[in-house]
Write a sequence for this structure.
């Protein structure tokens, strides 16, 4: 096993409690050693995110699935792919089996029934040193800083893949709801870079200025415009070609189909906590207007590489709120209060 000097102990934010009452105080834990086919990554920047998914005991209470840093140890069998000093990113999908139908068809490994997930079924990236499956670890390209790479490991690739799932072509209209938020501001940039015409929907002059700066051609302030659908149709004549629903609300999903032209596509991304919320439309609307409703979640290994390339070329840049590992609980409180701007990244040192 190739390695450099690594301490025996490290800092980690270890979750205690559950739900909104949970906290993640920083504790001292042992540094893990990579087994066969694994690498050990020194996490430099970690994205704060609350998935709302119950963690399995195998995580040892360590959440986090958007980390970027440098390889400091290489396990047996991984030497042909990684070396100490390589820059690496860890994602929500920590590993796949590589053998099932979904892994071998070249496009659907996200549906591998034997996948492992960072911060859900294996210890996540809220620690100084995190293990990663060598075959599914992402190589960070030149031109992308660690603090920018972290948000792209999950939020960025989710936004990028949603744009692709919309099937909107260059020159056509894409509506991004919640466009000024953590995922939305990335979707606006990816869509613009892909040649799409973006209608951003959000509330307030600050969000308007941000969305226009990032490349939105039109902005609809839902706090001022009573009939959003009518405004979208006024701008586009027949309606948008696609709508990405990022806001996890019943209202967002109910209104999305009304923004579309015939043949348009709703992309479900936001995950409401209310289990009664449904994505879709009355069957008569779906049938007569031939609407499409699709889901999108994170992205494949190839999708992540493509999403990172947009940043390497200077086309997409996450807007970051920076803190440290000790700030996990503070950001949890800000998120609950709706006051967390952009993507919060934590310096891990």
């Amino acid at each position: 096993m190739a390695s450099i000097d690594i301490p025996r102990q490290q800092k980690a934010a270890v979750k205690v409690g559950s739900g909104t009452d949970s906290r993640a105080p920083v504790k001292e834990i042992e540094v893990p050693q990579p087994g066969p086919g694994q690498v050990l990554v020194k996490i430099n920047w970690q994205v704060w995110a609350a998935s709302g998914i119950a963690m399995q005991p195998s995580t040892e209470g360590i959440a986090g699935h958007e980390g970027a840093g440098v390889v400091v140890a290489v396990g047996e069998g991984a030497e042909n792919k990684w070396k100490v000093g390589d820059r690496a990113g860890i994602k929500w999908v920590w590993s796949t089996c590589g053998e099932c139908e979904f892994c071998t068809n070249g496009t659907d490994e996200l549906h591998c029934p034997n996948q492992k997930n960072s911060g859900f079924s294996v210890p996540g990236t809220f620690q100084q040193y995190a293990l990663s499956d060598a075959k599914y670890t992402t190589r960070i390209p030149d031109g992308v800083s660690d603090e920018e790479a972290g948000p792209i490991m999950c939020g960025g690739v989710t936004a990028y893949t949603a744009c692709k799932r919309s099937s909107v072509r260059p020159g056509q209209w894409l509506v991004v709801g919640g466009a000024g938020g953590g995922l939305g501001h990335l979707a606006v940039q990816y869509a613009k870079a892909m040649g799409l015409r973006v209608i951003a929907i959000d509330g307030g002059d600050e969000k308007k200025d941000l969305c226009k700066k990032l490349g939105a051609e039109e902005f609809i302030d839902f706090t001022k415009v009573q009939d959003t659908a009518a405004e979208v149709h006024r701008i586009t004549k027949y309606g948008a070609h696609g709508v990405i629903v990022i806001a996890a609300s019943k209202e967002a999903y109910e209104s999305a189909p009304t923004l579309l032209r015939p043949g348009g596509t709703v992309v479900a991304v936001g995950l409401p906590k209310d289990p009664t919320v449904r994505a879709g439309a009355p069957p008569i609307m779906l049938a007569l207007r031939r609407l499409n409703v699709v889901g999108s979640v994170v992205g494949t290994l190839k999708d992540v590489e493509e999403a990172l390339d947009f940043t390497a070329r200077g086309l997409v840049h996450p807007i970051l709120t920076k803190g440290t590992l000790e700030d996990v609980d503070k950001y949890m409180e800000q998120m609950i209060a709706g006051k967390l701007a952009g993507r919060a990244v934590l310096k891990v040192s």
Summary: Residues 146-165 form the longest helix (20 residues).
